[in-house]
From TrEMBL:
Its EC number is 6.3.5.5. It comes from the Archaea. It catalyses: L-glutamine + H2O = L-glutamate + NH4(+); hydrogencarbonate + L-glutamine + 2 ATP + H2O = carbamoyl phosphate + L-glutamate + 2 ADP + phosphate + 2 H(+). The keyword Nucleotide-binding applies. One of its GO terms (biological process) is 'de novo' pyrimidine nucleobase biosynthetic process. GO terms for molecular function: ATP binding; carbamoyl-phosphate synthase (glutamine-hydrolyzing) activity; glutaminase activity. This is Carbamoyl phosphate synthase small chain. It is an enzyme of class 6 (ligase). It comes from Methanocella arvoryzae (strain DSM 22066 / NBRC 105507 / MRE50). Belongs to the CarA family. Residues 1-131 form the Carbamoyl-phosphate synthase small subunit N-terminal domain. Composed of two chains; the small (or glutamine) chain promotes the hydrolysis of glutamine to ammonia, which is used by the large (or ammonia) chain to synthesize carbamoyl phosphate. Tetramer of heterodimers (alpha,beta)4.
């Protein structure tokens, strides 16, 4: 089936469509990991975004539900060079094409992903529209220009009801802005009594769960739009330890008075080098973000930058020891990506323990 992807700047590419027929709009972003397409497609942080993989062959190990980071595909669409229809993996239950069919998501392959990536890298992240079943490039570009990133995107991916994973360890409330399953798993595996609550939960409701700590999760969209999360973190900072991952790190920083800005094309990949300023160690990290904390906005505030990106110097972690706030921009849960920073969850539980000692 023919398909077309159009960008807001008038660029378009025609290729082979698969999955759902029709129009899909989103912000076109590129991700550079060589593996991990199941985890990325199901990562709720990609809601609102059309995901382009720079790696030229996608689908070669099929699809296995155990890798999912949420109930199903959350990215708006998929853009790839070559699609593998005959995967080889003992745990695979279907191929990529069947996966998109089952999930009602659209994909386009046989397009020049290098050219598209260079375009985004040069001009910045762009709005895009994909039409599966058409090759009308002008129409796709026009649809891209009309589309707006939804402000309430977190509400589209947060849980509807709270849920708990019982454990004998400390009680941790996870504010779900679109949490990845492996974050919850990392807490549960360490014995935390994990309570996942919707993004709209108030500070009073959070405290009603008698938590020992709060984890602000990852999630899609502009952190400034996560207004309830910011309000909760502002209110509870100083009362109990607060941790943040990715969007959660941005929310915690906003709550402490810092500001955030949009990166030109973001960091999405599995080999982003991060320097730990306290130890001098460099970690290779998994990342997926388009916004970052502005270091200039931290000047004069009681926030300490703990990690920076070795490629571009952007903020990758911060803390406020007095208020017991610790957060990281990268993904310690990996999935996909290297496990170098999995210690984050160990240190989290140690810090919570210290708080109650
Ligand atoms: N993975 C995330 O939590 C992403 C955070 C935020 N939506 C960003 O793009 O920067």
């Amino acid at each position: 089936m023919k398909a077309v992807l159009g960008l807001e700047d008038g660029t378009y590419v025609v290729g082979d469509g698969f999955g759902k027929e029709g129009v899909t709009c989103g912000e076109l972003v590129f991700a550079t990991p060589t593996t991990g397409y199941e985890e990325a497609l199901t990562d709720p942080s990609y809601k609102g975004q059309i995901l382009l993989f720079t790696y030229p062959l996608i689908g070669n190990y099929g699809v296995n539900k155990a890798s999912f980071q949420s109930s199903g595909i959350k990215a708006e669409g998929l853009v790839i060079r070559e699609r593998c229809d005959h995967p080889s993996h003992n745990l695979s239950t279907r191929n990529l094409s069947q996966f998109l069919d089952d999930e009602n998501a659209s994909g386009i392959c046989e397009v020049d992903t290098r050219m598209l990536t260079i375009r985004i890298r040069t001009a910045g992240t762009m709005r895009a529209a994909m039409i599966v079943g058409s090759d009308d490039g002008e129409k796709a570009c026009e649809l891209a220009r009309k589309w707006q990133f939804p402000k309430d995107i977190v509400n589209q991916v947060t849980c509807r009801q709270p849920y708990e994973i019982p454990g004998n360890g400390p009680r941790v409330v996870v504010m779900d802005f679109g949490v990845k399953r492996s974050i919850v798993d990392n807490l549960a595996h360490r014995g935390a009594h994990t309570i996942v609550v919707p993004a709209t939960t108030s500070a009073e409701q959070v405290m009603g769960y008698q938590p020992d700590a709060i984890l602000l999760s990852n999630g899609p969209g502009d952190p400034e739009n996560a207004t309830n999360g910011i309000a909760v973190a502002k209110k509870l900072a100083g009362q109990l330890p607060i941790f943040g991952i990715c969007l959660g790190h941005q929310i915690a920083s906003l709550a402490l008075g810092a500001s955030t800005y949009k990166l030109k094309f973001g960091h999405r990949g599995a080999n982003q080098p991060v320097i730990d300023l306290e130890t001098g160690k460099v970690y290779i990290t998994s990342q997926n973000h388009g916004y970052a904390v502005d270091p200039a906005s931290i000047d004069g505030r009681d926030i300490k930058i703990t990690h920076v990106n070795a490629n571009d110097g952007t903020v990758e972690g911060m803390k406020n020891d007095a208020l017991k706030v610790w957060s990281v921009q990268y993904h310690p849960e990996a999935n996909p990506g290297p496990q170098d920073t999995n210690w984050f969850f160990d240190s989290m539980l140690q810090r919570i323990g210290g708080h109650h000692a």
